[in-house]
Write a structure and sequence with these properties.
about 140 residues, mainly alpha, 2 domains, elongated, Iron_permease_Fet4, coiled coil, transmembrane helix, membrane
């Protein structure tokens, strides 16, 4: 499978930006800038250098992070879909839920919240008979 130039670039940049050494370099650059303040008499140009630099880096990183997050989310959804598909008793209707609107998702959510409440009630009843963890302190909606 051939990777696009942007995919290669964004993967590499994401890896580099996530390293501790990159953070240390960024801190050092800020320190050099701060220490150089007296040399440039804390001028408007001196302040503009850090403001412009950080704004540009932040602007570009937003797109890099979003691209990486989109790919990670899509890959995770495919993996979850495969797990649902592969499990015999799983409902295939749960495949591709991320494509549903909020109203349809709400109906699925209500069904699974009801199942969770029933399971906690069953656990509460069973914990009286055997030594199981208490669910009385669990969050209730």
């Amino acid at each position: 499978m051939k990777k696009s130039w942007f995919l290669k670039f964004s993967n590499s940049l994401a890896q580099i930006s996530g390293h501790a050494s990159t953070f240390v370099i960024a801190v050092l650059l800020v320190l050099v800038w701060a220490i150089s303040g007296p040399l440039f008499h804390f001028s408007d140009t001196w302040q503009l250098v850090i403001n412009t630099s950080t704004t540009i880096v932040t602007f570009l990183m937003v797109f890099l992070i979003q691209n990486t997050q989109n790919r990670d989310t899509a890959a995770m959804q495919i993996k979850l879909d495969e797990l649902i598909r592969a499990i015999d008793k799983a409902h295939n209707a749960l495949l591709d839920l991320e494509e549903l609107d909020e109203k349809d998702l709400g109906r699925f959510r209500e069904r699974y919240e009801k199942l969770a409440r029933e399971a906690r009630d069953d656990l509460r009843d069973a914990s009286r008979e055997v030594d199981l963890p208490s669910v009385d302190r669990m969050h209730k909606d």
